[in-house]
């Protein structure tokens, strides 16, 4: 059935496009979750008046009820790469083409005259790109050292590897390895703090701090005591990074908007969420002035938001 649904939502006659994932079966009988690669395809699919599931493997056609569900917690990140540091060793246009072939999950903008290029994609895909670029940077750095030892009269080309790391990755470190930085989506960070707090609780020799700026939270991992070492800091950083990559694959976010925009309505929704929360321990609820963010796996937040709606209605009927 997952294959049949994938084919259906990829067909142009159904206003479809590239399908990233189909979740079926789910805990809700007859319900499937379809994730598209592009938001434009989502809007196009929703505009079609009627969806009929037809396939030679089915005994008859089935009408489909297609509705908008929720969004990924963090679907993509945009980064500007400074490729000018490679201009003495490579033809930048050829290097960009090589990157595109190796990183098909990323979208590349036009190469600017100053060597900058915009890249968009998921954190995991960005991390793979970072690793590839650092490997190239390392190989060039080793070549420079070899050339310098052979002829000290030649001016050594300076490869700004640290700057490259700062500009292209979601994880950076200082020269002596005693400080690590991981950049996370703020919602993912909140979920990790809520469900996996032990990742951020370390001994007194390592200090973990954070700075949140809108959708992005930067986590700093640093040495605090004389007994700590760079390896210990690096291990903490890797735990945080690996957990964030796992969560990127499964987390979704649903927004519950307050229609009346009144304090009483907000109170009802928050009360409903609190009363249901013990039944959904893996769901994170973050209230705001205009809406409530619900973060978790697709099935659980689907059930949770449905139960919240029913609970709010029952609270209204009691009045």
Automatic annotation (TrEMBL):
GO molecular function, a single term: nucleic acid binding
InterPro entries: Nucleotide-bd_a/b_plait_sf, RBD_domain_sf
Pfam families: RRM_PARP14_3
PANTHER family attached to this UniProt entry: INTERFERON-INDUCED PROTEIN 35/NMI N-MYC/STAT INTERACTING PROTEIN, RNA-BINDING PROTEIN 43
Identification of the protein by name: RNA binding motif protein 43
Annotated region described as Disordered, given as residue ranges: 144-171
């Amino acid at each position: 059935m997952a294959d049949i649904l994938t084919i259906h939502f990829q067909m142009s006659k159904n206003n479809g496009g590239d399908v990233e994932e189909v979740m079926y079966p789910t805990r809700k009988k007859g319900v499937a979750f379809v994730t598209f690669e592009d938001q434009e395809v989502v809007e196009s699919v929703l505009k079609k008046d009627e969806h009929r599931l037809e396939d030679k493997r089915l005994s008859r056609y089935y009408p489909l009820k297609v509705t908008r569900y929720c969004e990924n917690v963090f679907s993509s990140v945009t980064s500007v790469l400074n490729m000018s540091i490679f201009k003495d060793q490579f033809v930048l246009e050829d290097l960009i083409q090589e990157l595109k072939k190796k990183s098909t999950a990323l979208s590349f903008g036009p190469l600017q005259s100053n060597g900058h290029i915009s890249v968009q994609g998921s954190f995991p895909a960005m991390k793979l790109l970072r690793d590839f670029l650092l490997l190239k940077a390392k190989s060039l750095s080793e070549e420079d050292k070899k050339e310098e030892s052979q002829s000290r009269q030649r001016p050594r080309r300076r490869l700004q590897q640290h700057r490259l790391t700062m500009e292209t990755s979601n994880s950076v470190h200082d020269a002596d390895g005693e400080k690590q930085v991981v950049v996370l989506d703020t919602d993912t960070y909140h979920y990790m703090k809520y469900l996996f707090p032990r990742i951020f609780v370390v001994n007194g020799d390592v200090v973990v701090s954070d700075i949140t700026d809108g959708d992005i939270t930067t986590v700093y991992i640093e040495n605090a005591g004389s007994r700590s070492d760079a390896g210990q800091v690096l291990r903490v950083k890797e735990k945080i990074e690996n957990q964030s990559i796992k969560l990127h694959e499964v987390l979704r976010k649903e927004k519950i908007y307050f229609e009346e925009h009144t304090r009483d309505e907000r109170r009802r929704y928050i009360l409903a969420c609190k009363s249901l929360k013990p039944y959904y321990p893996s769901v994170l609820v973050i209230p705001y002035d205009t809406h409530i963010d619900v973060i978790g796996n697709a099935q659980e937040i689907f059930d949770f938001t449905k139960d919240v709606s029913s609970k709010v209605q029952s609270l209204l009927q009691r009045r």
